[in-house]
Design goal:
This protein is an alpha+beta fold and 201 residues long. Helices cover 32% and strands 18% of the residues. Strands 1, 2, 3, 4, 5 and 6 form a six-stranded mixed sheet that branches. The model has no long low-confidence stretch (mean pLDDT 88).
């Protein structure tokens, strides 16, 4: 797909020039947002019926299955299968991530990391606010990339999908938004995958 085709697809699921913050009632009844909700509800139902079990099992087999997490919530309007392998390296939580869009035939892979040393301070407090939040890693080691590549191959063989163009992921679509994302800050990643890279396992 071209950039223009991606934009046209995004416009099918998010109403143009209706700010979710300022006019939530109009946003919620728009045909575009209704289409997104219906799609997410359909994926949620398929997941409950076990339609994706084989796919998830294949992903789980590429790394330590004890570290496998399904982070997505279709009922919360996540636009992708959000699959992670989460491991701890010292005080660093490290996650290998695969996002497979339910809106376009594309996926993306990345690593996110966050330091939990503040969470480990005594006395233990799981609700303690920390200054460090999960962030997408700017560089990925060769060993980590091999795991991401294995996850990607499963997505390609299972769905026939392609990697989403990296240069477009963070490009803004200025006239649409959703929930926590302000108008003018909404990206292709937000349109086809998730609100952000953050997870809180």
């Amino acid at each position: 797909m071209t950039k223009e085709e991606f934009i046209a697809t995004a416009y099918q699921y998010y109403p143009r020039n209706i700010d979710h913050f300022l006019d939530i009632e109009l946003y919620m009844i728009s045909p575009e947002f209704t289409k997104l909700i219906n799609l997410c509800d359909l994926m949620d139902k398929k997941e409950e019926e076990g339609v994706f079990k084989d796919f998830y099992d294949k992903i789980k087999s590429v790394n330590n299955p004890d570290n496998f997490r399904m982070i997505h919530r279709f009922h919360g309007n996540d636009r992708c299968h959000n699959l992670h392998f989460v491991e701890r390296r010292g005080t660093i939580h490290h996650a290998f991530c695969l996002n497979v869009s339910i809106v376009v035939p594309y996926y993306t892979t990345y690593v996110i990391e966050w330091d939990i040393k503040e969470k480990l301070q005594e006395p233990a407090d799981p609700f303690r606010m920390t200054s460090d939040y999960p962030k997408k890693a700017l560089t990925v080691s060769k060993e980590d990339q091999e795991i991401l590549d294995k996850m990607a191959k499963v997505a390609e063989s299972n769905f026939g999908y392609k990697p989403f163009p990296e240069d477009l992921l963070n490009e803004m679509i200025p006239d649409i938004n959703i929930e926590t994302i302000k108008m003018g800050e909404f990206t292709f990643f937000n349109a086809f995958f998730l609100d952000d890279y953050h997870i809180f396992p």
